[in-house]
Amino acid sequence: MPTPKSSSHIRFAAVGDIHVQKDAGGTLRSLFAQANEEADALLLCGDLTDYGTEEEARVLAEELGAVHIPIVAVLGNHDYESGTPEVVSGTLAHAGVRVLDGSVCEIEGVGIAGVKGFGGGFGRGALGAWGEPAIKLFVQEALNEAMKLESALAKLRTRRRIALLHYAPVVGTVEGEPVEIFPFLGSSRLEDPLVRYPIDAVFHGHAHRGTLRARTISGVPVYNVAKPLLQRSRPDAAPFFLYELPREPADARAPSAP
Question: What pTM did the predictor assign?
Answer without folding.
Answer: 0.94
